[in-house]
Amino acid sequence: MMCIAVSDQRSAISDQLSAPSRRLWRRCDGEAVGLDIVAPSPPRPLAPARLSSPQASRTSGATLLEVLMAMVVMAIGVLTVATLFPISVLRAVQATKLTNATIMRFNAESAIRIQPNLILDPDNDGDLAEHSDPLNANYRPHYLVDPLGYEIHERDLNVGYEDDFGAQGILPRYEYDRTTEPTAEALVADPDSWNSQADGLVTNSAAPPDIQLTNNLDLSGVNFAGPPGGLVSRAILVDQTGRSSVTRNITNINTATDPDTITLESAWPAGFTPVTARVETHEPRNFSWMLSVRNEGVSGVFVDVIVFFRRPFGTDDETIFNMTRQTGNSYQVAYAPGAQKFWKRGGYLFDVDACRWYRIQRVEPGNNRDLLTLERSPGAVITRAAFMRNIVDVYALGDMR
pTM for the complete prediction? Predict the structure, then answer.
């Protein structure tokens, strides 16, 4: 039996890369039998060396144009969000006013139900027929029940205005049974309305009922005398937890000390330690109401509640203007050069002859003649009107007999 061994003979690494391989066949006894020549396989190409340079290792970034575009987009977003804050504040203020106006409306309605003669006998003389019977010699079916306005005009010596709206003999004004400002205020004003004067930390509470606040607060303008000498002021004290508070009226403010010393009407309870305090002044006239009444006898007594926010009690708001109807619900108001114009979009026009209120939808200024568009067309042509300021809303109560 013949045994054959095969061996490759390569001279060097260079031969492996370039020269053919030689395969030698031998028998088992060592004698050469034959020689094969094997073609070489093509060499594997080497990957090119990667050259390192400062530019190749540098990280790619944004161009100046991309940065500017990003800044523009961000600025648009920030401005859009910023414009929402003033609008939200205005909406919050408006919501607060409408909430308080609704409360005042219910107060007025309750007063009418408790005292029906408030609208049936507004001058409180016992003669109901003069307001409801057309055959009565003193018959005046349209009138205002405005105790606070009556008393203030009387106090300010606005002759003729206290018992006559606009002092032109068109629309009577009555005070009912309220013959002083405090009693009128108690009926038509908001009893729980306060204006914040100062907020601060309590720096000294060791001698109750006296407290001292931070020395950067000026309390010299706070009125604490109480009626009739002045408005009532109070301090709301809050403890460290913020969960407990104590309210006390202020009886004195000593501005000679540094900081100012506030004296309260009584000490706070034992175990209570005031940490912060708010000083508030009672301002009941923030919100007030008056009534406009159309007493149509057997047909009904129709009442509107007009709610004001900080009503200006002056004669300017009772100026009566001549009106000229244009088309439908559009009216032209004539005014003298330099006259104060209180009509505006969203405000109210008061028809002093028919004793009705209309909201103004649009105002088109003109040359001493402005064109007003009302929310609805009046049943009768308006010839004379007044424009009162600071009206929050007008609530139609309907027939209140």
Answer: 0.74
